[in-house]
Amino acid sequence: MDYQAIIDKYYSDNDELRHIFMTHSRAVTKRALAICDRHPELRLDRRFVEEAAMLHDIGIFLCDAPGIACHGTEHYLKHGRLGAELLRREGFPRHARVCERHTGAGLTKESILAEQLPLPAEDFLPETLEEKVICYADKFYSKSNLAKEKTIEKAERSLSRFGEDGLARFKEWETMFE
After folding, report:
1. How many Å apart are CA 22 and CA 119, to the nearest integer?
2. Signed CA dihedral, 62, 68, 69, 75: sign only
3. Any bridge partners for residue 124, and if so which?
4. 99 within 8 A of 58, measured Cβ to Cβ
5. Which end of the chain offers a freer environment for a tag, N or C, measured as fewer CB atoms within 10 Å?
6. Taking residues 100-111, what's their average pLDDT?
7. Mean pLDDT throughout 141-149?
8. Which candidate, 71, 138, 76, 129, places its Cα nearest to that of 104?
């Protein structure tokens, strides 16, 4: 897979957004690959982790988030689902699953319904180890503060605002990946 060609296809006309997208994606990818290297016993598909980590936020350009140079029309919470749709059309369904399952520490059908989130009422939880690694790595980097890496404690605090289930998943991943 040539993930750079996909990035170029969707991020060629907005230099600021491309910079934000690439900086964030590279940071997430670097952390995810370090986990792959630190844990050979997990037998992670390193090439897939690299590709999917670089593409996990491919759908942000379709969203309305002017603070990160996104001037689309969709709610930002939809970026994972929108990215998944793009990647499925490109012929990469496995990568698409990472897109739609990386928000928070994954979203349950119950939380989507309870919080009336603008997503289909279904589970969007990371299932494979590769999906979990990328979701975990993503929690340490914000697109609105590119120069700063969050500590584990700050990542936990950010996730705790969205309920105990996601925080518990994240803590489980801490024990697996750190």
Report:
1. 25
2. positive
3. 107
4. yes
5. C
6. 94
7. 93
8. 138
Tens digit of each residue's pLDDT (9 = 90 or more) over 114-124:
999 999 999 99
Percent of the chain surpassing pLDDT 90 = 92
Q: What is the DSSP string of 113-174?
A: HHTT-SS-SS-B---SHHHHHHHHHHTTB-SS-TT-BPPHHHHHHHHHTT-HHHHHHHHHHH
C-alpha 152 chain-centroid distance: 17
How far apart (Å, rounded) are the C-alpha atoms in residues 53 and 83?
A: 12
DSSP H or E run through 65: strand 64-65
Tell me 108's DSSP state.
-
pLDDT of 8 higher than 80: yes
Looking at 55-64, 102-111, 128-137, which range is the least confident one?
Answer: 102-111
89, pLDDT greater than 90: yes
The predicted model scores a pTM of 0.96
Which has the closest alpha carbon to 25: 159, 174, 142, 178?
A: 142
In three-state secondary structure terms, 106 is strand
Q: Which residues on neighbouring strands pair with residue 64, listed in sequence order?
A: 71
